[in-house]
Task: inverse folding
């Protein structure tokens, strides 16, 4: 007769919860651009930013989200805060149709910024993500800080050291 013993399975490690606040900036559209993100995990905060000499605001908004997610070295539960309805709606709603239609819009035209949408989609699949929209240039302190960093990156064409910016 065998006895039943409770399973001694190891509990999975808890998933890190991270908030990523993002923003993009462009001086002229197109023109010199900058992006920024702030990664927050518990009491740890990491600011990242970068630039592109000739870009659009939408590309910088996308780049901010991509780089924030890319900086995470393990699968996480991520809340991404953005002031870009383009990014939020694109990654949560529109992308499904674009992928089904071979990266064509409802008007059967190629999706603008397809390269970045594909990069963002790749990063999103690594994590459990939720997307939160916040009004830009308003009362969200993190969004306001990202705006400052992205504008400075666009003006001065500077970047943070991305290679060592892992959370």
Result:
């Amino acid at each position: 007769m065998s006895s039943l013993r409770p399973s001694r399975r190891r509990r999975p490690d808890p998933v890190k919860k991270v908030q990523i606040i993002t923003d993009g900036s462009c001086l002229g559209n197109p023109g010199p651009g900058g992006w920024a993100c702030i990664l927050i995990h518990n009491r740890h905060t990491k600011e990242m930013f970068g630039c592109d000499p000739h870009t659009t605001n939408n590309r910088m908004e996308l780049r901010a989200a991509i780089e924030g997610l890319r900086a995470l070295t393990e699968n996480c539960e991520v809340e991404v805060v953005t002031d870009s309805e383009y990014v939020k709606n694109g990654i949560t709603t529109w992308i499904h149709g674009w992928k089904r239609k071979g990266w064509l819009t409802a008007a059967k035209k190629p999706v603008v910024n397809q390269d970045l949408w594909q990069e963002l989609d790749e990063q999103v699949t690594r994590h459990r993500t939720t997307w939160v929209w916040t009004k830009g240039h308003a009362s969200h302190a993190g969004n306001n800080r990202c705006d400052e960093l992205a504008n400075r990156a666009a003006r001065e064409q500077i970047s943070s050291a991305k290679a060592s910016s892992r959370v």
